[in-house]
Target: AsnC family transcriptional regulator
Amino acid sequence: MDLDKTDRALLLALQKDGRASIANLAEAVSLTETPCARRLKRLEAEGYIDSYRTLLSRTALGLGVLAFAYVRFGVHARELSDRFEREIQAIPRVVSCHNVSGSADYLLQVVARDMDDYGVFMRDVLRALPGVTSVESMFSMREVKRDVGLPLL
Model:
């Protein structure tokens, strides 16, 4: 189903504030509460809304390091990549993992308390994962733009 102007406005309002009440959402998209609630339920049912969540502060949680790790495999066997992907799901400090094209096989986004903590994680966890032959890390010096939601093109 195509999204109309009101659906798009509702989705944008939710991306800005996932805890907004139906009353506030209705006001933001110029609807009354009942039609707004019906639209929201329909958007959820049709899969436009994956989930609701809260973004936590890395700083408040003492996670001062944000690293991007390029992971490379020496052997590209399906069973190795399947096992790697299963194991990476269970590692909380890996906040995202993408199978990518180019010189690396995976791109991970990893958080750590400090550089020492990251170094121990690299040595004891990341390099020990199945299939991993090399890891190249880059560190965020400053976050310029945080996940602000998807554009509605």
In short: The mean pLDDT is 95. The first strand starts at residue 65 and ends at 73. The CA atoms of residues 15 and 149 lie 6 Å apart.
